[in-house]
Design a protein that fits this description.
- The protein is of the alpha/beta class.
- The protein folds into two domains: about 180 residues, Rossmann fold (3-Layer(aba) Sandwich), CATH 3.40.50; about 120 residues, Rossmann fold.
- The protein is built from eleven helices and eleven strands.
- The strands form two sheets. A seven-stranded mixed beta sheet has the order 3-2-1-4-5-10-11, sandwiched between helices.
- The longest helix has 22 residues.
- It is elongated and about 70 Å long.
- Bound molecules: 6-O-phosphono-beta-D-fructofuranose (F6P).
- The site of 6-O-phosphono-beta-D-fructofuranose has 10 residues, from loops.
Length: about 325
């Protein structure tokens, strides 16, 4: 393959803290290697609606500490159509962009995979999502920051929960994936984590209540992953009102606060490593792979594997929560 001279970079799907650090790393590593960079605004939309701007080294100054994404982001319906992707390809040709770096989650990498196959176009993905639901990488960019945000919020809820001796149901994000919920519960010392992956196997709420949570504690904190599978915090609260009306229960839905804020050191370092690795991957003639990190080593994960949606929740973590919440 001839040497790539110009790349485009975009962020797509839900924003995640650390995306800016990744944009900075990709841009600087590309320029370091003599590759021109173009920023594509609002995800795949920018390709379809021609919002493409030149990026220089100073375009990414002072952003490593900022949450969100300076490139903006969107979930682009047009890119899911054959016609939309054709317009996107024409824009890439016109701009002389020979490879794309896509920073985003499951949906964004699924789009990247389809486009890469359709047009035989080199794309390298970076896992940018708070959900940590991409296969082949131990961590995604934004997950650690969101986890810390959850921990800080639950610490605050604990103060009021214990003052009023109440049961709190706290809903966290994650789509159909329980990483934020389970690790958020362990980090904040909660009593239970109700996660989609285990909903059919055990009734954690029933167990917690039948063990009599008030016997040794004056309050209780239960985290639940959003969505239909668990029923979310409102679903759990309805059940408590119906089946255990003796408990004074309150609901707190953390919502989009989990997506914001300055990235943690871990997320900044992860994003910087992955951004630099994306350029190395292109130089190595890799295409249609996501950059992952496994056992602290950079790895290339084919898109088909990354988006498989069956990242395993560890039984060890579930046990730790169970043991420590007695
Ligand atoms: O994928 C990231 C995420 O924050 C999920 O945890 C959540 O379900 C979803 O995005 C919310 O998306 P939106 O901001 O479009 O409502």
């Amino acid at each position: 393959m001839s040497r790539i001279k110009c790349i485009g970079i975009l962020t797509s799907g839900g924003d995640a803290p650390g995306m800016n650090a990744a944009i900075r790393a990709v841009t600087r590593a590309a320029i370091f290697n003599g590759i021109e960079v173009k920023g594509i605004l609002r995800g795949y939309r920018g390709l379809i609606f021609d919002e493409i701007i030149p990026f220089k080294s100073n375009s990414v100054s002072n952003i490593i500490q900022q949450g969100g994404t300076i490139l903006k982001t969107a979930r682009c319906k047009e890119f899911t159509t054959v016609e939309g992707r054709k317009i996107a390809y024409e824009a890439l040709q016109r701009e002389g962009i020979e490879a794309l770096i896509v920073i985003g989650g499951d949906g964004s990498l699924t789009g990247a995979r389809i486009f890469a196959q359709e047009y035989n176009f080199p794309i390298v993905g970076l896992p940018g999502t708070i959900d940590n639901d991409l296969m082949g990488t131990d961590f995604t960019i934004g997950y650690d920051t969101a986890l810390n945000t959850i921990m800080e919020a639950v610490d605050k809820i604990r103060d009021t929960a214990s003052s009023h001796e109440r049961l709190f149901i706290i809903e966290v994000m994650g789509r159909e994936c329980g990483f934020l919920c389970l690790n958020g519960a362990i980090a904040s010392g909660a009593e239970a984590a109700i996660i989609p992956e285990r909903i059919e196997e055990e009734d954690q709420l029933g167990e917690l209540i039948s063990n009599g949570f008030r016997k040794s504690k004056n309050s209780s904190l239960v985290l639940v992953t959003e969505g239909d599978i668990t029923g979310g915090a409102m679903g759990i609260a309805d059940r408590i009102k119906r089946d255990f009306p003796e408990y004074d229960c309150r609901v707190s839905i953390l919502g989009h606060v989990q997506r914001g804020g300055s990235p943690t050191a871990s997320d900044r370092i992860l994003a910087s490593r992955m951004g630099a690795a994306a350029i190395e991957a292109l130089k190595d003639d890799q295409r249609n792979v996501m950059i992952g990190v496994q056992d602290d080593k950079i790895v290339y994960v084919p898109f088909s594997k990354a988006i498989k949606k069956n990242k395993q929740i560890s039984d060890e973590l579930l046990n730790v929560l169970k043991i420590l919440s007695i």
